Amino acid sequence: MPFLDWVNKNQAKETTREVPYHLLQQESVYGHVSGTNSDNLLIQGDNLLALKALLPFYAGQVKCVFIDPPYNTQSAFEHYDDKLEHSQWLSMMYPRLVLMRDLLAENGSIWVTVDDSESHYLKVLMDEVFGRRNFVSSAVWQKTTSARNDAQYFSSDHDHILVYAKSLDLFKINRLERTASADAAYKNQDNDPRGPWREIDYKCAKSADERPNLFYPIRHPVTGEEVWPRRTRVWAYGKDEHERHLREGLLFWGKTGNYTLPKLKKFLSDARDGLVPRTLWLAEEVDQTRTAKKEMKDLFPSDPFATPKPEKLIQRVIELSTEPEDLVLDSYLGSGTTAAVAQKMGRRYIGIEMGEHAITHCVPRMQKVIEGEQGGVSISLKWKGGGGFRFCTLGEPAFDEQGRISADVKFATLAAYIWHFETANPGHQTFDKPLMGVDNGTAYYLLYNGILGDRRPASGNVLNQATLQAINEVFPHQGPKVIYGEMSRLGASRLIAEGITFKQIPYDVKMR
């Protein structure tokens, strides 16, 4: 597979590995937060640092990532530095895509909007990060229905939405709800008692050399002649399937038998499982930029966001990629559209935004959503309000330059970090005791912050005879143990006999 190269690419790869782990600091709570709502987060801060901070808690848990990153088009965005040189833009995107990949569930997907200036480079970059075989499609969104007469060459009508799966083998895209216009394509040309139907081509684009079993004669019911697929085509169905079609009256040769080749009847009654999504997303279906700007003007008359996406566009993405209560992530939250639509659609969400408009736009917008605002997709979804979210900022780094653990790091935070480092699983359990959990037969323990009720160096945070006895009595495990602590006063032979691998804090707490 070809790879994309650019200035400082190696540095971009190193950045991925060297992103410091910061603490998430809860600033306030809005609305009613409990149960699944507790995962609803708005985070203000650098999205690279925020994505890294989320890993111990949400790795492998996000069902859909939607991002609308700066397009690198030299346009004067008010809220973004969108004048990055090409290689800088790629270096900015690479580590963030890697972290988003790590946050995605195995059956999850990522959807990225981009224009023509970077779409082809981004495609190759995402091939490298997600694997070319996990490319799903590139949808074209009609972002405007009117021409720009001041355009130098072409007036751009569209943006792209690149879609990748974490694993194409596990990814399943949802069908769209059927529409009246789609149903109108079904007619009943021969008064079939089974109801309306439409014609399906009976051929497929394979040659007789490729599929000889699909190349056979069919007898025309009117002329009695044998007919064959034209040119290099073959029939789309084998002989046994064709015989079933004959028995069930599923072939149509025209109202008067005037077709030279048959068509297959596809009944409306068999098509109620929804519509297969297409790659052309028209403005009449998912709205356009002008609609998005009106939505923002209605929400913030004196300070609308300059580059929003319409709610119906985000609704289409979430509808195709998730189910209720799935987790949606947007690390370029902008004006908060993704979080707003996710809330209205009953999805959990995490939104990350660096600028001040995290406070001036995202938070007040979500407050209005909770209160039941009726803009965007609210009416079609019958949204009445409710729910809540937590607003967080990025705290201090968890580790200093010498690798020492910050005094602000609490037991639960360090436990979640170590658990993820050791098992690659997010920490959803409650970390309030030395036993963090068991994974693949190995138990993981943490002696830190006086978790055993004794902060003296000689006791609670040190693995000695007393702490080992407490572990074995209160948190027993028959199998290998990994124990983190300040130090161990047990000899190597005793550790081996107990099946213990001891790791010293902070030296063995690796930066991931």
Strand order across the biggest sheet? 1-17-2-16-15-3-4-6-5-14
- The portion of residues forming beta strands comes to 15-25%
Total E-strand runs: 23
The CATH class of the largest domain turns out to be Alpha Beta
What's the CATH architecture name of the largest domain?
3-Layer(aba) Sandwich
Largest sheet: 10 strands, mixed
Q: Give the class from helix and strand content and strand pairing.
A: alpha/beta
Percentage of residues in helical conformation: 25-40%
- Number of helices, where a helix is a run of at least 4 consecutive DSSP H or I residues: 14
Average pLDDT rating: 89
Low-confidence stretches: 74-78, 455-459
Radius of gyration: 29 Å
What is the domain tally? Answer: 3
Tell me the CATH topology of the largest domain. Answer: Rossmann fold
The first-to-last residue Cα distance is 28 Å
Output the CATH homologous superfamily of the largest domain: Vaccinia Virus protein VP39
Overall morphology = globular
Question: Can you summarize this structure?
Answer:
The protein is α/β, with parallel strands linked by helices and 512 residues long.
Summary keywords:
single chain, 512 residues, alpha/beta, Rossmann fold, 3 domains, four-stranded mixed beta sheet, 14 helices, 23 strands
What does this structure look like?
With 512 residues, the protein is α/β, with parallel strands linked by helices. The protein is globular and about 95 Å long. The strands form six sheets. It has a ten-stranded mixed beta sheet, sandwiched between helices. Strands 18-19-21-23 form a four-stranded mixed beta sheet. The chain has helices at residues 9-18, 47-58, 86-103, 119-130, 180-183, 239-247, 283-286, 289-299, 311-321, 337-344, 357-371, 411-423, 465-474, 492-498, and strands at residues 22-31, 41-44, 62-67, 104-114, 135-142, 158-165, 197-201, 203-204, 218-219, 226-227, 234-235, 251-252, 263-267, 280-281, 327-330, 348-353, 388-397, 435-439, 442-446, 462-463, 481-485, 487-488, 500-504. The longest helix is centred in the N-terminal third of the chain and has 18 residues, at 86-103. α9 (311-321) packs across α10 (337-344). The protein folds into three domains: 9-175 and 276-397, 3-Layer(aba) Sandwich (Rossmann fold), CATH 3.40.50; 180-270, no CATH class; 411-504, no CATH class.
